[in-house]
């Protein structure tokens, strides 16, 4: 039970930090709330979180496949070096730029708020490799096994972590707007450091395999 609590809070925190920087999803959640009401903003956020849960599950399946097929791990570990190196630089540059993006215009009605969030989240191609990397790191740390309970906790924590940030954007965007620049910079530095950790772990696994 203890490892499940650690797994939940670690994954929740990683999902939370990944969603804090202003981007297409959270800014549209805020804009939907302003233009269509907070209820629509919440429904939009639920759509986003639902897709995140699906993407996190796909990430687990990918990690599980790699774990059970060690013959392909050597090649993929080398590819992972490039992926983690890219994310390290990407988040670091994002922190250095430290710019607040203007909300992207999106027309959302009460009937399609959920689907807008769902399909906009599907456009984010970085989510699956991000959660695959997290899953691999948690597995190496002994925080997650490929058991149904662990998988459910992992994907729910990813969904809840994402929804928590979107909820804050929906209800407190006006108050957060002046502080968003600082939030974005700090969270991007943390994500860059996390990707650096994953990069180092991957290098160690290659050298000592």
């Amino acid at each position: 039970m203890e490892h499940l609590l650690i797994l939940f809070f670690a994954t929740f925190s990683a999902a939370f930090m990944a969603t804090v920087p202003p981007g297409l999803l959270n800014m549209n959640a805020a804009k939907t709330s302003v233009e269509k009401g907070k209820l629509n903003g919440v429904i939009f956020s639920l759509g986003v979180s639902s897709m995140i849960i699906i993407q996190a599950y796909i990430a687990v399946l990918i990690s599980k496949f790699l774990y059970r097929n060690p013959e392909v791990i050597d090649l993929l570990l080398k590819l992972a070096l490039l992926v983690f190196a890219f994310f390290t630089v990407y988040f670091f540059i994002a922190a250095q730029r430290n710019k607040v993006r203007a909300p992207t215009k999106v027309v959302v009605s009460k009937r399609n708020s959920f689907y807008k969030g769902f399909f906009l989240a599907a456009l984010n191609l970085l989510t699956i490799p991000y959660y695959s990397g997290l899953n691999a790191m948690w597995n190496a740390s002994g925080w997650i096994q490929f058991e149904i309970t662990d998988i459910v906790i992992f994907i729910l924590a990813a969904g809840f972590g994402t929804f928590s940030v979107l909820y804050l954007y929906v209800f407190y965007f006006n108050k957060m707007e002046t502080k968003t620049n600082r939030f974005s910079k700090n969270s991007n530095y943390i994500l860059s450091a996390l990707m650096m950790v994953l990069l180092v772990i991957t290098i160690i696994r290659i050298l000592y395999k």
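The chain has one domain: 2-72+101-178. DSSP finds eight helices and no strands in the chain.
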